[in-house]
Amino acid sequence: MTRATSTVIAIDGPAASGKGTLARKLARHYDFAYLDTGSLYRAVGQAVLAAGGNPADEAAALAAAKALDVNRIDERAIRSREAGEAASIVAAMPAVRAAILHFQRNFATNPPGGKDGAVLDGRDIGTVVCPEAKAKLFVTASPEVRAQRRWLELKVSGSAVGEAQILDDIRERDQRDAERAASPMKPAADAYLLDTSNLSIEAAFGAAVAIIDKAMS
Ligand code: DC
Fold it and tell me: Ligand 1 pocket, 88 CB below 6 A?
């Protein structure tokens, strides 16, 4: 039996822009599968750290990417500040990106659970992973708003890191993610920009659905 083509929604944007929350809600709304591609890079970075390695060591990072088992990702461990930092370092390596590209594309074209489509969020979904996506959003927010969101998240999980430190981290990661040569973070030419700085989650969701419904009609 031939499978109908999967409908792909690409959600890109910087750290703590609200893209993950939005992408999850969109997947539920359209009854599509959801893939947080940042979790793959985080899992690779975390695996290197857990083995006592240095995330800047390309051989160690590539070995971790090749050994990645997406069904065994420790959701708690990959959310730490250190794992986020390590993820940004390994994500700049073309060989690491190549090692997990196939999994991401396969998820998009053959969504698990027999779903008719998939929502993927990351940095290069609309530009590299799924340039053919039916709808593309690039979700942004000011660095200050993003730092405050991330600070609140980390505080709830028991972390005592200050907001100023998180703002520094965010600026550093933005720069590394946007300036790397391999699949840098940037809006696809046909992406809709959605600035969530002054939007509640519900307002951002409403705006995204309006854009996506139009793109899919
Ligand atoms: O979205 P996040 O903060 O969980 O992503 C962690 C890191 O992974 C981020 O610094 C950039 C990288 N990343 C990437 O390069 N490409 C993606 N598609 C997703 C994440």
Answer: yes
